[in-house]
Give the backbone structure.
Amino acid sequence: MNFKESHHLILNNISRFIHLTELEKQKYVSLLTEIRVKKKDFLMQAGEITKYEYFITKGCLKVYTLDEDGAPHISMFAIEDYWTGDISSFMTKEPSRYYIKATEHSELLGISRTNYDVLFQEIPKFERFYRILYQRSLISYIRRSNHGISLTAEERYIIFKKKYPQIINRITQKDLAAYIGITPEFMSKIISKVNRM
Amino acid sequence: MNFKESHHLILNNISRFIHLTELEKQKYVSLLTEIRVKKKDFLMQAGEITKYEYFITKGCLKVYTLDEDGAPHISMFAIEDYWTGDISSFMTKEPSRYYIKATEHSELLGISRTNYDVLFQEIPKFERFYRILYQRSLISYIRRSNHGISLTAEERYIIFKKKYPQIINRITQKDLAAYIGITPEFMSKIISKVNRM
DNA sequence: TAAAAGTCTTAAACTAGTTCATTTTTTTTC
DNA sequence: GAAAAAAAATGAACTAGTTTAAGACTTTTA
C-alpha cells in the first residue's frame, strides 16, 4: 500500500494513540478531503456551520473571534501536525463564531461531519483516538483558562514563548497580542521589557 | 437488579451518551468507590497524585490552585451530576497542582486509575462516553479561556450568573471572585453595581 | 521599484482592577 | 445564644493594561 506524504503525516499522528491495520489505514484516508488555502484566505468564517475537523500538513493558521468592537481574539495558532476547527459548531451544527485564516500558504486534511460519524461506526477504535485527543486538548485549555484569569500578560507571554518557540517566529506581534489578550501597543512594551531583562 | 440512588444518578448521566445493558451497568458500578467528604475537608491536595476521577451525587466542591502569593484561583465548582478531578495528574500520574475542597457535605463516586483502564478493556463503549464527555468539557473550556482574555470581569460575572444560577447561590462571593479572577473587594463592587442596574 | 498598506514603537492621558486599611454583617462554634 | 471567625462593604492610593495619536520601519502590490 502506498500513501502520500500528507497521509503518512496524519497516520503517524494517529499511531501515537491507537494502532491501525493497513486496511483500516486505507479506509481512514479514504474518508479525508484535501484542502489548500492561500495566505490571508479563510478556511472558514463566522456564521458558517463548520463542515470539517482539520489536520494541518503544511502551513500556519489562526483561529479567532471578533468582539463587538471588531477586535480579534485568537484562540489558537495551528501549524503542521496540529488538529483544528470549531468543535462546537462541528458537533452542534450551529453557526460558528470563529474565523480560521491562513497566515501562510497551508495544506490540510479535513474530515466531514458525515465521515466523522461513519468513522466511528466502521473503526470504533477511533472513539479511543478522539477520547485521548480531546482529553489532552482539555488539559491544555483548562491550564490556559486558569492562566488567563490568574497571570499577568507578561507571564503569559513568557510561558507562550517557552512552550511554542516554533510558533512565535512565524506569527506577527499583533497576532501574538490578540492571542495573549492585550493590545499590540502593550505587547510591544512587554517584548522590549522582557528582551532587556 | 437493584441499584442505589447514587448508582441511578450516575447511570442516568451516562445514558445520555451511550446505552448500557443491565450486565454492563452492574459491571460498571462494581468498579466505583463511594466517597464522602465533610464541609471544609479536602478531597485531594496539591502534591498528591490524583487517584480518582469523580462524579458528584450530592454536595458542592471547589477545584483550585494556589499561586506563589498563596492566592486561590478556582478552576471549577462541581455540584450534583457533575464530573470532576484533575485529569492531568490522573492521566500522567504526576503530582497535582490542585486542591479539591468541599464547600458543603458531599457524596461522590470515584473511579480509580486502574479501574478506568479496566473499564475500557471490558466495556469499550466507554471510550465513546468519555470521548463525548471530554469533547463537551473542551468546548466549554475553550470558551472560558477566550472569555478570560477578552471580557471584563463584569461581563464574566454576568455570564456566570446567567449560565450557573443553581451554583451562584451556593457559593461565597469570595469564592466567586477567585473563579472570575479578581479580588473579593472588586467582586463586591461589581455585584453592587450590577444589582443597581 | 515606487506607492500603499500594514506593522512596530513611543509617549501621554486614561480606566479596570489591586492593595491596604477599617467597619459592618453574617456564619460558625462552643 | 454569646463569642469568635469569616465574609462583605467601602474608600483612598496605587498599578497593569487601554486609548489615542504620531512617526519609523517593513511588507505587499501594481
Notes: The mean pLDDT of chain A is 94. The beta strands of chain A are 32-37, 42-44, 52-58, 60-66, 72-79, 83-84, 99-102, 106-112. The radius of gyration of chain A is 18 Å. Chain A touches chain B at residues 65, 67, 71, 73, 75, 87-88, 91, 120, 124, 127-128, 130-131, 134-135, 137-139, 141-150, 180-181 (CB under 8 Å).
